[in-house]
Predict the structure of diguanylate cyclase.
Amino acid sequence: MEGREITDSTYPGASQEAVERTLRFALEIVSDGIWDWNIRTDHVKRSPGWYSMLGYAVDGLLENVATWHEVIHPDDFERVMRGFQAYLDGTQPLYAEEYRCRCRNGDYLWVSDHGRFVEFDEEGRATRMIGAHRNIHERKLAELALQQKNQELLELNRTLEDLVAARTEALQQANRALAEQAALALRLSETDPLTQVANRRCFERQVQAEWHRLQRHGHPCALLMFDLDHFKRINDRLGHPAGDRVLVAVAEAVRQDLREVDCFARWGGEEFVVLLPDTDAGAALSLAERLRLTLRRIDAALPMLLTASFAVGAMCPGEDPVALIRRLDDALYLAKQQRDCVVVC
């Protein structure tokens, strides 16, 4: 994701050091390890989480690119270098690779590695790059096991089809069932189990896709975020089962007002977010006002009026999704101060 330029107005009153510390904390929350490469000096600063993930003592390895090369699995090295060089050359819009890293005990751990240029010199040449590693070992092993299983099934199918033509239909049914199970597993992995709307992982993937569509074609896109007011009171007074029923009712009511192309997700707790492709800020504001009134009419057998605070923002060219979400969060915070209102950012 391309980062928005950090200026003095981004965090009023904060020093550059404080701003960078804040952003580093944010990166550590969403990743297992972060790295910061000074391209001029070849110095690479890695977070304690990076060392811990691989079992090394903090700062126990040389802080340079060569250290990274040394821990990459030999079978992955050439592919990773091609992807990395493609980003450095500008032929790829981002650097993102999955590969194995050697741990201190000699084992290899699957990681997801993403990085971006964040600083440039006067001639436009990159001078600094920041990235993050995530531990995807369990997920990757499951994917590889599934691929192996599929390959074994395909080989078995070919053998059985040659030997017993009458079994062809039965084998096709077995394959269809496997595909359906895989599709179901994917849907479940991207669905909030309580409300049955998309989860955060699914939403972030959709936002990335829509952001790239905006960069290529200039189609408008807006986001809408809302948080149920005083939801803690519902849980405290009526119990968590009652709170869960309210969340389900809210999800169903909002879903009925959305289009097929909209992505409606539970962001966390009592907070929800909607991605609105081909929608400008004005249309998103109208929808937010309509949803705000819809939620007030929900009959959830509550001894209090159900209201929500909304934030609405349009996706802007050059502004990455992380910056947009941060902008929405700030606007939602302002809306929560007043309750039952919509703030446009």
Notes: Residues 257 and 290 are 9 Å apart (CA to CA).
